[in-house]
Each structure stands twice: as structure tokens, then as C-alpha cells.
């Protein structure tokens, strides 16, 4: 292959790697990579955030991401957007549900316990890359709340 052709091929891959909304390569274990397909970039009051599929057409995100907005944009891996309505609630915590009709996402993840001696992966929107990515594994540094396996 000639040098100009190599340069064109490399340029194509460099551009393709930074297409907004494209899924980043995943070097984590398969269940972690599969979980990344259930995390979407969203934009609302905070223009760069993540939401996780928790049911049919339902996502959860942080309340501070939507603030007083009644809707958020869910950014699909191919760059298209789906409008998600904020589901009103009087829950005082920093979580809110979004309903996104037409979201053809995978089913929600099963919930499991977090153990302090296992690798834990964070999956979320990477502003610099413009995509959802799996971050390097880390360890739980604060003990879990007793009798509340899903609380921190």
C-alpha cells in the first residue's frame, strides 16, 4: 500500500473514532461492555450527562442534570436524538426518571451487590470523546451501608 493510501486509511479511522455519539471501544470484561450498551449520553440543563436504561422506555439520571427542564435529549450511538420526558416526582433524592418512547435500547441490567474487594467499573458520558465509555476499574473505597445493599 502506498503512503498516500495509508494516510487516507489512518485519517478515516482517526475521524471515525471521534464521531459524536459513536460507542468507544471496550477492553473490559464482556458483561461490563454489554452494560455500556444500556448507558446513553443525554443533554438537558447540564448539556453532558449519562442516563441508564432501567425499564421499557425508562432511563434514570441525576435530578441536577435536568434541573427544572421537562424534557431531555437522549443521544443515540449513531448521533440521532430521542426526546425523553421527565417523569415528575416528589422524591427528594438526586435521581429522576425519563420516559423516552421509541428508545430501541437493550433491556435493563440486572442489579447485583457491590463488594469491596472486586473491580468496579464506571460507565458514563465522556465529554472529550463525545461518547459513552467504560473507565478503568477501581475499588470501592467506602464501606457499604449496612442493611442497604444498593446505598452508598
Would you mind describing this structure in some detail?
With 152 residues, this protein is of the alpha+beta class. The chain has one domain: Beta Barrel (Thrombin, subunit H). The protein has helices at residues 3-17, 30-36, 63-66; strands spanning 39-43, 49-55, 58-62, 71-75, 81-86, 95-99, 123-126, 131-134. A six-stranded antiparallel beta barrel has the order 1-2-3-6-5-4. The chain has a two-stranded antiparallel ribbon with strand order 7-8. A hairpin with a 5-residue loop joins strand 4 (71-75) and strand 5 (81-86). The longest helix is centred in the N-terminal third of the chain and has 15 residues, at 3-17. The termini are far apart.
Distance between the termini: 55 Å
- Determine the CATH superfamily: Trypsin-like serine proteases
Radius of gyration: 18 Å
Please tell me what the overall shape is. Answer: globular
Secondary-structure element order, N to C: HHEEEHEEEEE
CATH architecture: Beta Barrel
Integer tally of domains: 1
CATH topology: Thrombin, subunit H
The amount of helix comes to 10-25%
Largest β sheet strand count, sense and barrel closure: 6 strands, antiparallel, barrel
Contiguous low-pLDDT stretches (5 residues minimum) are 1-22
Amino acid at each position: 500500500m502506498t503512503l498516500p493510501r495509508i494516510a487516507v486509511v489512518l485519517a478515516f479511522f482517526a475521524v471515525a473514532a471521534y464521531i459524536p455519539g459513536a460507542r468507544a471501544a471496550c477492553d473490559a470484561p464482556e458483561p461490563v461492555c454489554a452494560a455500556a450498551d444500556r448507558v446513553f449520553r443525554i443533554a438537558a440543563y447540564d448539556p453532558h450527562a449519562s442516563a441508564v436504561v432501567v425499564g421499557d422506555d425508562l432511563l434514570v439520571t441525576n435530578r441536577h442534570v435536568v434541573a427544572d427542564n421537562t424534557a431531555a435529549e437522549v443521544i443515540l450511538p449513531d448521533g440521532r436524538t430521542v426526546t425523553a420526558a421527565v417523569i415528575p416526582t416528589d422524591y427528594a433524592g438526586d435521581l429522576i426518571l425519563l420516559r423516552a418512547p421509541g428508545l430501541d435500547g437493550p433491556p435493563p441490567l440486572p442489579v447485583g451487590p457491590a463488594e469491596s474487594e472486586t473491580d468496579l467499573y464506571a460507565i458514563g458520558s465522556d465529554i472529550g470523546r463525545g461518547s459513552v465509555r467504560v473507565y478503568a476499574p477501581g475499588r470501592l473505597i467506602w464501606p457499604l451501608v449496612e442493611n442497604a445493599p444498593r446505598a452508598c
